[in-house]
Amino acid sequence: MEKIKCVISYDGTNFSGFQIQPRTRTVQGELEKALTKIHKGEHIRVHASGRTDTGVHAKGQTIHFETPFTLPPQNWKQALNTLLPVDLNVYKVEVVPESFHARYDVAEKEYRYYVWNEREKDVFKQNYMYQFPYPLDIQAMQYACRYFEGTHDFTTFSSAKATIKGSKIRHMYEVSCHKEGSKIEFIFRGSGFLYNMVRIIIGALLDIGQGRREPSDITDLLEKKDRRLLGETVPAQGLYLWRVKYEEPHQ
Amino acid sequence: MEKIKCVISYDGTNFSGFQIQPRTRTVQGELEKALTKIHKGEHIRVHASGRTDTGVHAKGQTIHFETPFTLPPQNWKQALNTLLPVDLNVYKVEVVPESFHARYDVAEKEYRYYVWNEREKDVFKQNYMYQFPYPLDIQAMQYACRYFEGTHDFTTFSSAKATIKGSKIRHMYEVSCHKEGSKIEFIFRGSGFLYNMVRIIIGALLDIGQGRREPSDITDLLEKKDRRLLGETVPAQGLYLWRVKYEEPHQ
C-alpha cells in the first residue's frame, strides 16, 4: 500500500461542507467517488486536515488516502482532476511515508477571512466575501488582533455546539488584518482552531471596528471563557482554509 | 405615468439568461416579480437594452419600466434591492422622459470577456472567466483586434441561429485585448452587437493566439460572410455586458 497526500482547493459555494453525508454533495463525497472509480469500485477513504462547513472555501486543504496502486504523483493528479467536478481541484500530489496523517500531523493551519466593506452590494462577491456596509476603524481592529496572538484558552471564541472535550488552549502565530481598497483581509495562523473560532473572532473584531467594544476588552473576554458574551458568528462565505503546514519533509 | 431607468448588475451563473420564461429563473422574471410586489400585484413590464444568454454576467445592463408611482430615485433603488435576490442589484435609478427607450436609444454598448490563461484550473474562476490552458501569442491577438474596428458586415461572426433579418453591419469603436498576469481582458465597444458576436470573435482571436490563423485572415473572413468558416463559440461565463451608453442626458 502507498500513502498519497494531496493539496486541494474548492469553491465551497455548492458543497454541504467537507464531511461525507448521505444524499448531499460534499467535498469528501466527491473525492471518494473519484477514487472509487479509479480503484474499480473498491471504496477508498479520504482523511483531511479537518472539516470545513457549508460555504467555506479552501485554497489549500490537505488530505491523504491509501492505495494499492503505484503511480507517479503527476498521474494521480491528472486522473483525479479528470474525474472531479469543476469546483474541486487537486493541485499537488505527493507520496508520503506510512506514518503520515493529514489530521494528526498538522503543525500549523492558516485561515483567511474577507470582508467587502462597501455600502453598495457587489453581486460578484456574494459567495466569496462578507459584504459589510458600515464604516470600520481598521486601526482599532488591528490593535485588537494582537490580543489574540500567543497562547490562550479560546473557550469564549468557540461554538457552544462544539463537542470537543479536550483542551481549548491554542497558539496563534499570527492574527492580523489590513485593508486594500474596499477589501479587508484577515489572516489567522495557528497551531489549531476550535469550531467556528475564526468566524466568532471576526464578529468580535467587527464590533470593535464599529466602536461597540474596545480592543482591550479581548483580554477580559478570553479570561471569562463564556461564549454567550459574544454576538453572531459571521457568514461562512468569507472564510478560506488557506494552507496547512506539516513538519518537514511534508510542508 | 413616470418612466424609470435603472442600471443593474447581475451574476449570470444562476440565471437562465435575461429574458422572462415560464418555470425558469431569469433576470427579467426576478425584476418583474419585485416590481409587481411594489405595485400591489399590478404587472409591470421591464424593457432592457438587450438580452443576455444563460451564464452571461452584467456589470451595467440598463432597463426601463413605467409606473403610476412618484418616488425619488433613491427610494426606488432601496425598494427594489430589498426585494431582489443577492445575485441581482440595482445600482442607479433615474427618472427619464417618456420618449426614452432602453433598447431603441442605445448609442454604444461595451462588452468585456475574460480568459484565465493558466494550465492549472482555478476553482474560484470557473463561473467568471474562460479557463484556457494553452500558450497564446498576445501580440498577434492584439494585432488581429484592429481588423474588427470600424464599420463591417459581421455575418461571419454571428450565430447561424440568429433570426434577425435587417442589416448585419455594425460599427466597432474599440476592439482590444491585454494581458495582466494570467488574466486576459478583451474590450469591445460598438454601436451594437449581433447574436453571439463577441463569443465568436473571441474564438477566432484564440485561434490566432495559437498560431492556427494569421491576424490578416480577419479581412478575408469578414468579406466571405459565412459563419461556417469559424470554430466554436467560447463559453458564456467569461462574458460581461459592461456598460450601455445613451445619448445625453441619459448617459
From TrEMBL, chains A, B:
PANTHER family with a match to the protein in the record: PSEUDOURIDYLATE SYNTHASE (PTHR11142), TRNA PSEUDOURIDINE SYNTHASE-LIKE 1 (PTHR11142:SF0)
Pfam families per the UniProt record, alphabetical: PseudoU_synth_1
Subunit architecture: Homodimer.
Native organism taxonomy: Bacteria, Bacillati, Bacillota, Bacilli, Bacillales
Active site: D53
UniProt keyword terms in alphabetical order: Isomerase, tRNA processing
GO terms, biological process: tRNA pseudouridine synthesis
Function, in words: Formation of pseudouridine at positions 38, 39 and 40 in the anticodon stem and loop of transfer RNAs.
Organism: Virgibacillus salinus
Family membership: Belongs to the tRNA pseudouridine synthase TruA family.
Protein name as annotated: tRNA pseudouridine synthase A
Catalytic reaction list: uridine(38/39/40) in tRNA = pseudouridine(38/39/40) in tRNA
